[in-house]
Automatic annotation (TrEMBL):
Protein name: Cysteine--tRNA ligase
Short sequence motif 'HIGH' region: positions: 9-19
Taxonomic placement: Bacteria, Bacillati, Mycoplasmatota, Mycoplasmoidales, Metamycoplasmataceae
Keyword field contains Ribosomal protein: no
UniProt superkingdom: Bacteria
Organism for this UniProt entry: Metamycoplasma faucium
Gene: cysS
Gene3D superfamilies noted in UniProt: HUPs
Motif 'KMSKS' region: positions: 242-246
């Protein structure tokens, strides 16, 4: 069984389409691998307590839970809207506090962490030779801001902190809340039983310090890295600027879906190397939306053809393409997919590939009513009754058949 973990959102605001890039790319990869017979166990966390959540709760004079619940439910809704399979586990920090306590205590017990007041810190210098495995950073070259917080070393990071603002939770270490860097490490420890996982994913901005700090905690407990492979996703730029709430150039999924198909975004990601930035433009969205419409028209016309019930799937072609997708070789897979979409003798294979990859358009079937209108249109067209044919043609164009 393959074991995957993907860092999830901090649910303090509406997720934008950039936030969906990692989970949607994982979805494409996992769908392909499952088709090829792989068993996958996939965990994707939700950070539902954080400074940003606390600050928003204070600003809106509501509880942290009401903020996190609202935007968690929005995130779940978008997984459905974009046909993203729900991960096997989606642990929330506030629902897994006992597991976090156990994890932090293990680090204290083996002298990798220490307590000062109600704070618990990881002793980074104890593992200075291993620190930097993920990011390539060297501890001796790093500079840290001076802090009034008393700890052994400036590089030491909080596993549990005695916060002064917002909600506090009871713990064996005193009242406070978890440090961000220990959440994911604790979840991996809990759900994967302390074993090194196959793939760990997240945004490129998480490499340091988040993923570095996750890894060093795991190393401290098990003398091995937390993951065999890291997948770091490039930024999503809109009109040459990183899509960011602070800049204000974001596109929310619900706004995206007012103009484009969900498949349009899936296609955009499929056409890009996961580690590279994508410069989103209106022109790119329009071009990919038009391509999805062409695929939809081809699919609808195929349903009306005699080959719909007779053409057989080419299993070898499917396996070749999905093997490329499963190994994240999107560039070569796309060449094969595009060629397949033009091959009239293998259209059923093209549609099956797209269905496996999570596209929605091959799941749309024509109603009997539309099929009858199409038949009538053919009759009027062949009889050269063009006025009647044109009236039906307008309906068929609207239904993406012509």
């Amino acid at each position: 069984m393959k074991t995957y973990y993907l860092c999830g959102p901090t649910v303090y605001d509406y997720s934008h389409i950039g936030n969906l890039r990692p989970i949607l790319t994982f979805d494409i990869m996992i769908r392909a691998q499952k088709y090829l017979g792989e068993e996958i166990f996939f965990v994707h966390n939700i950070t539902d307590i954080d400074d940003k959540i606390i600050n928003k709760a204070i600003t809106n004079n509501v509880s942290e839970e009401s903020i996190s619940t609202k935007f968690y439910l929005y995130y779940l809704e978008q997984l459905g809207n974009f046909n993203i399979l729900k991960p096997d586990k989606m642990p929330k920090v506030t629902e897994e506090l006992n597991q976090l306590f156990l994890y932090i205590q293990k680090l204290i017990d083996n002298k990798s962490a220490y307590k000062i007041g109600n704070n618990v810190y990881f002793d980074v210098k104890k593992y200075s030779l291993q620190y930097g495995i993920v990011s390539g950073q060297k501890l001796e070259n790093l500079e840290f801001e001076d802090s009034k917080i008393i700890k052994k070393n400036k590089a030491d990071f909080a596993l549990w902190k005695d916060t002064k603002v917002g909600i506090k939770y009871d713990s064996p270490f005193g009242k406070g809340r978890p440090g961000w860097h220990t959440e994911c490490a604790a979840f991996i420890d809990t759900y994967f039983k302390g074993k090194t996982i196959d793939i760990h994913g997240g945004g490129i901005d998480l490499i340091f310090p988040h993923h570095e700090n996750e890894n060093i905690q795991h190393y401290a407990l098990y003398n091995q890295n937390i993951a065999n492979k890291w997948i770091h996703f490039g930024t999503l730029n809109y009109k040459n600027q990183k899509m960011s709430k602070s800049i204000g150039n974001i596109i929310y999924p619900h706004d995206f879906l007012k103009q484009y198909y969900a498949d349009t975004y899936r296609l955009t990601l499929l056409m890009t190397n996961y580690s590279k930035p994508i410069n989103m433009t209106d022109e790119l969205f329009e071009a990919n939306n038009n391509l999805i419409e062409k695929y939809l028209i081809t699919w609808n016309q195929f349903q009306l053809s005699t080959e719909f019930k007779t053409q057989k799937v080419n299993e070898e072609l499917m396996k070749n393409i999905l093997t490329l997708i499963g190994s994240l070789d999107f560039a070569n897979a796309n060449k094969e997919i595009f060629a397949l979409s033009k091959d009239k003798n293998n259209l059923v294979t093209f549609f099956e590939v797209m269905k496996v990859l999570g596209f929605l358009f091959p799941l749309k079937f024509l109603s009997n009513e539309i099929k009858e209108i199409y038949k009538e249109w053919l009759i009027f067209r062949d009889k050269k009754e063009f006025q009647k044919a044109d009236e039906l043609r307008k309906i068929l164009i609207k239904e993406k058949i012509l």
